[in-house]
Amino acid sequence: MNRLRLVVTAAVAAVASWLVRSLARFEATDASMEPTIREGDYLVATRVRHKLPRFALVVIPHPGNPDMLLVKRAVAVDGDRVQIEGGRLGVNEQPVPQPWATGALAGAGTWDLESGEMFVLSDNRTTDTADSRTFGPVAVADGVWRVRFRYWPITRIGGFSG
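^ that's the sequence the OP posted. Answer follows.
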């Protein structure tokens, strides 16, 4: 019986250790991702360890202030080419519809992403907020979290695809 207790305790400790390193909760503190994520929403995210899918919602450290966290959408990843011109977003020479976005996409430019990088944008383009248009591509290795679930407010509880 003592051996079984030891094995169960070790297994629980291993799972708890993995959860602590792999899961985190975040609060959205601004309107940059509305209407997808609203200020005051509470989110659960998992640490990104592998390739990130295009259009995933992510939490990243602000490149100019690592103590500040930003919630954004990864519109391009790993070797993609991003083009913004005339209010339109293109990835790899293909137009990208953005049904989640509100407001006009300002700015212009072309960015070639290296392996392990992503290009992030805010969903709410009517706010003045930092994203890859101002600070460039973001390295996934810099501590990126993928938003999986909103648990508050209860009326908006649910998971995120993409």
